[in-house]
Amino acid sequence: MVLKIDNDKVLHWLQHGAQPTERVEKLLKISGALEAFEASKASKAAT
Fold first, then answer.
1. pTM for this predicted structure
2. 2 part of a folded domain
3. Residue 23, class by beta-carbon neighbours within 10 Å (0-12 exposed, 13-18 middle, 19+ buried)?
4. Which range of residues forms the domain containing residue 14?
5. Residue 1 located in a structural domain
6. In a domain, 24, yes or no
7. Cα(41)–Cα(1) distance, integer angstroms
8. In-domain check, residue 38
9. How many distinct structural domains can be found in the chain?
10. Percent helix, strand and coil across the chain, each to the nearest 5
11. For residues 45 and 9, what is the distance between their CA atoms, to the nearest angstrom?
């Protein structure tokens, strides 16, 4: 089974307050979406 994750949509939803479940969070870590979200949060906090 192949699961495709649209990281752009994931980032959009996370930036608007979506809270992933533990399982989904693991998948987002694998896809790199969670890391990208954390980086975008850090860059916003730095400005």
1. 0.79
2. no
3. exposed
4. 7-46
5. no
6. yes
7. 32
8. yes
9. 1
10. 70, 0, 30
11. 21
